[in-house]
Amino acid sequence: MRILVVNGPNLNLLGTREPHIYGTTTLWDIEKGLKEKFPNVTFEWYQSNSEGAIIDTLHKAVGSAFDGVIINPGAYAHTSYAIRDAISALKVPVVEVHLTNVHAREEFRHHSVITSVCRGVIAGFGSKGYELAVRSLLDS
């Protein structure tokens, strides 16, 4: 199985950015942990603060290069119809992940424009959400 993992804006700062909200685990820690837990899965890991670069990366999954996609769009979940459209073009399952429970936070975080084109959403379980997303893709 090949899984594309796409991370949006500010996720490169995990571990140092608002640790009281996001914890001290870094994006590198999450990637390393997934590779250890799922040695039979090939991951392509990507992070960008740029909407266009995220869309270009999602386009890599349009063909048969990947069996599934995990996306943590960060704040783009609430604003990016362009990322939503890129996801809707994919034929593989996509799981949306958020480290925090977005519904327990500020009002503007309560709605994601990409949720309707994703197989499911995992929110509020910290870095464990990525593992749950992989398991959901393996079970599909």
Which helices and strands, and how do they pair?
Elements: E1 2-7, H1 19-22, H2 27-37, E2 42-47, H3 51-59, E3 68-72, H4 81-88, E4 94-98, E5 120-123, H5 128-138
Parallel strand pairs: 1-2, 1-3, 3-4, 4-5
Helix pairs in contact: 3-4
Which key terms come to mind for this protein?
single chain; 140 residues; alpha/beta; Rossmann fold; five-stranded parallel β-sheet; 5 helices; 5 strands; globular
For the sheet with most strands, the description reads: 5 strands, parallel
Give the assembly state of these chains: single chain
How many helices? The count is 5
Gap between N and C termini, in Å? 11 Å
Low-pLDDT runs of 5+ residues are none
Content of β-strand: 15-25%
**Neighbour order of strands in the largest sheet:** 2-1-3-4-5
- The CATH class turns out to be Alpha Beta
Give me the strand/helix succession. Answer: EHHEHEHEEH
The number of strands is 5
The name of the CATH architecture is: 3-Layer(aba) Sandwich
Which structural category fits the helices and strands? alpha/beta
Q: Using the CA coordinates, give the radius of gyration.
A: 14 Å
CATH superfamily: Dehydroquinase, class II
> How would you state the average pLDDT, rounded?
92
The helical percent reads 25-40%
Overall number of structural domains: 1
